Hints:
Elements: E1 6-9, H1 17-24, E2 26-29, H2 43-53, E3 57-60, E4 76-79, H3 89-94, E5 99-100, H4 107-122, H5 125-133, H6 144-147, E6 157-161, H7 165-176, E7 180-184, H8 195-201, E8 204-207, H9 221-226, E9 232-235, H10 244-252, E10 258-261, E11 281-283, H11 292-310
Parallel strand pairs: 1-2, 1-3, 3-4, 4-5, 6-7, 6-8, 8-9, 9-10, 10-11
Amino acid sequence: MPDRPIILATAPLRGPGVDTLRELGEVVEESWISSTTMRLLNDKQLAARIAATGATIVICEADKCAGPVLEAGLIAIASTRGDPTNVDVPGATAKGIPVLRAPGRNADAVAEMTIALLTAVNRHVLRADADVREGNVYLDGTIPYQRFRAWQLAGQTAGLIGLGAVGRATKWRFEGLGMSAIAYDPYASDATHELDELLGQADVVSMHAVVSPETTGMIGAKQFALMKDDAIYLNTARAALHDTDALVEALQTGQIGGAGLDHFDGEMLPKGHPLIGMPNVVLTPHIGGATYNTEANHTTTIANGLAQLLRGETPDNCVNPEVLA
């Protein structure tokens, strides 16, 4: 390992972890995103920047690490994502390059967004806000108390599907609101409910599973039919976990009471999509993890992992530790 490696960071860096990185090597910051700009590099473009800077370590978030990047003589690749999907991990492993990740970096942020969506749906926040702005406090002979009554969350049951970092961060927030929290996760020993059982009991169903062949489309017409007719469905994970057409039908027919969604196939809904016009649905554009703390968290996690690596240790956050055996 070189004493002072050059670290090319195309991911945004923030917080005390930046100082740790600067102690480890010379840091070249070329973030892919700022408040006004965005630049995604493919594998050839990233390889060119590696060559131009002389980097031996790359910290990336969205740029593609594959092909020529793996031929660039790197001693480590660090993806600031919980799941390093932008990295060809098998290819890196074949080249003997350790790949680091940042698990749980946005768990609290996404959990907070889940609570925000729940509150907005349950208490009709957006519709009430619109009435105030449009001068429709008294509308069609009604007062707001009539139009926007809701059940309080305290005393209700929240059902979590997936009990990883985000699911656990959301669970204690539900409980802090006075809700009972139950969970389905075949890989977590403390998740004691089967899926169908959870769907029938929960007043709020919140998705926190990772997308895999076994979870893709796991919530469809059959599952929505099992839910209470006033249940609120939340998905701050990925739209691939549910059948969107089945969700639309469940909302239109009153099979469920409302929904809060932070992700859509292709990252956006097409114009005129039925979900857009539904008053009992709150939609946000995949911003659950969009906090400054997320950047600080992934910087610290990656910096600590690289420090372990450069000391000759196996980093706790290495996804292919076999290359260091």
